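Action item from last meeting closed. Structure (105 res):
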């Protein structure tokens, strides 16, 4: 998979993932997802990680694919930061966050 395809896929997933989590129009907290019967443990058991120390468990298996994914991910975060700045978004306080994006064919 080329860096361009990875970047395009990540951008698509990032901007649209909050709109389609469990058919909702907003992203869910872990607690809200569990109330609706969706656990992270279950999702992790059926979806492979993008990268893993054991490449048989990873979606991106080669070092080159993992490097391209890393570069695309950094670009995604930089572009997202630019988007937020351009739309005058300011965090009220330091905020730590992470995401998990699950998708299938």
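Sequence:
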């Amino acid at each position: 998979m080329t860096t361009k395809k990875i970047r395009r896929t990540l951008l698509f997933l990032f901007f649209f993932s909050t709109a389609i989590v469990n058919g909702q129009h907003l992203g869910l907290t872990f607690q809200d997802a569990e109330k609706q019967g969706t656990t992270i443990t279950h999702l992790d058991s059926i979806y492979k990680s993008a990268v893993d120390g054991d490449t048989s468990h990873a979606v991106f298996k080669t070092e080159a694919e993992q490097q391209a994914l890393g570069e695309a991910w950094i670009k995604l975060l930089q572009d997202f930061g630019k988007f937020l700045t351009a739309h005058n978004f300011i965090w009220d306080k330091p905020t730590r966050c992470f995401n998990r994006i699950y998708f299938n064919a």
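Note appended to the action item: DSSP finds four helices and no strands in the chain.
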